[in-house]
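#onboarding

Welcome to the new folks! Below is a worked example of what a typical request in this channel looks like: someone posts a single protein sequence, and someone else replies with the predicted structure as tokens. Don't worry about understanding the tokens yet, we'll cover that in week two.

Example request:
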Amino acid sequence: MWKADGWKDYEVIDCSKGEKLERWGDYLLIRPDPQVIWDTKKQHTGWKRPNGHYHRSAKGGGEWEFFDLPKQWPIGYKGLTFHLKPFSFKHTGLFPEQAANWDWFGGKIRNWGRPVKVLNLFAYTGGATLAAAKAGASVTHVDASKGMVSWAKENAKASGLEQAPIRWIVDDCVKFAEREIRRGNHYDAIIMDPPSYGRGPKGEIWKIEDCIHPLVKLCAKLLSPEPLFFLINSYTTGLAPSVLSYMLSAELNPVYHGRVSADEVGLPVSSNGLALPCGASGRWEAF
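Example response:
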């Protein structure tokens, strides 16, 4: 497992009975997690006195219950600053387990020895975008949600990266990639963090099982002659790390000199030293 164990402003304190107790800066949140199928005793006092608790509904979805929680607050990670705010479907605007990937590709960008152009698809609130920009890359940030792109810009400003070479694009990721191919644009690195299911700005339907491989094939055409890396993240239970590895190997290894690795990504649990699985990542990297 690739663990995001470099956080100071975030931790998973404990997890049991379908929920996890997390510290986000100065605030404690309880959120549901489908991976937490075990039933252990909830001993930490935070279980009884959280600042926010997302209650899952038996009918699907759910709602927040707040106890002295601000509408927005910041946390930091290695010089980056992210604004958090609870919104629908339990999210806060950040997936902290992805810091394991930020550290990995940040080191590759800094050590490559020449300028790096990165394409970040399904870029959300900009965690990977800012990590790549801070490492010295120029980044094209693409997301179908105008609100998410605006949020990412706020995070860039808070991180001192307002003037960094980031191109902000509100668009359907597949259609953007198709246009970039027609325009003859290329990238040294590609990051994609696709949802299990979603809709584009014009109602385009995205279902990861049907769409992810065609998108990988499409994006392979956008790589420069000597690319640095290709990263895929998945939160879909049916897509094991080996599936991501197979797709990357099939599309990239016949053309480029590199290697593929894939594993779960996760977060350490401070109460017991174990690790909470949080999805999977596949990485192709140049030799």
